[in-house]
Amino acid sequence: MKADQIHFIRTELDRCANMREQKQRIKQLKKFKTCHYVPVYRGNHIYPDSDEEFYVSPMPLGKPDNQSFLGILNDELWFGCGLTEKEAVALEIQLECQFESIRQYAMALNDDMAHIALYSRGLDLWQRQKNFCSKCGTRNHLESSGHKMVCENGHEQFPHIEPAVIVLVSKGDQCLLGRKHTWPPNVYSTLAGFVEAGESIEDAVHREIYEESNVRIKNVTYFGSQPWPFPSSLMLAFNAEAVSDDIRLDDEMEDVRWFHKDELIKWAKDGSIILSPRFTVANNLISHFLGKRI
Ligand SMILES: [Zn+2]
Known about the structure:
Elements: H1 23-32, E1 35-40, E2 45-46, E3 67-73, E4 76-82, H2 85-95, E5 99-100, H3 111-129, E6 140-143, E7 148-151, E8 156-157, E9 162-171, E10 174-180, E11 191-194, H4 201-213, E12 217-228, E13 233-242, E14 253-260, H5 261-270, H6 281-290
Parallel strand pairs: 1-4, 9-13
Antiparallel strand pairs: 2-5, 3-4, 6-7, 7-8, 9-10, 9-11, 10-14, 12-13
The chain binds zinc ion.
Zinc ion binds at residues 133, 135-136, 138, 151, 153, 155.
């Protein structure tokens, strides 16, 4: 893998969005194609000890109404199965293994499996939060093979994605990293924040960097995106050059500072600082800046 290659950026999975309303077609395909059913509980999956991949069942799990069509990969159909607490506990007992977050297993998954895990996680978390319509308060039910909620008065709701910008700001051989008060000790990362209502991504990049560090930037270039359903973000990554270097912190940040490339490599190696895990786009941005994987 190249130093700057973003994890989970591409997949061979065909989401087949035009099939979601075609219940009969999916039902027919199920009869003669291999199907994989991914149990999901609160966005988490089961990772059996002996296996690097998450557990997949050849048979449907949970209630049929909670089955989400994810798409087709290598001519095989994939479904997410959102489980109730009771169903999840029963499966944990059966498999002698517990539901866990993708975070600690992400690096072991290939891109296609990571996509399916993140995709089923994002849908499941959204579905669990949307029992009632946000417009009229009546009960929602799932439609469009798990991709749409409709209430008793016909109001439609779709999965909610929150775009966030994440930026590596450089100044020659130095880059700008920071840490929030809430983070574990010594953890530093690229600056990031959510795009606000009525705001362009371009403006959000300039605003977030200025708010968190007081640094002004230029030459902003798009680096890539990464799905980040924790619970519902889409990370939009950028590189930028500093036009000022005087740092002033806002209330959110405990520390923001310039790191020289050599310091960064040395301190990350000896544990003086802890950078974001390798599967994160923050790590990909820093690796790209250093010209080597860190
Ligand atoms: Zn409604």
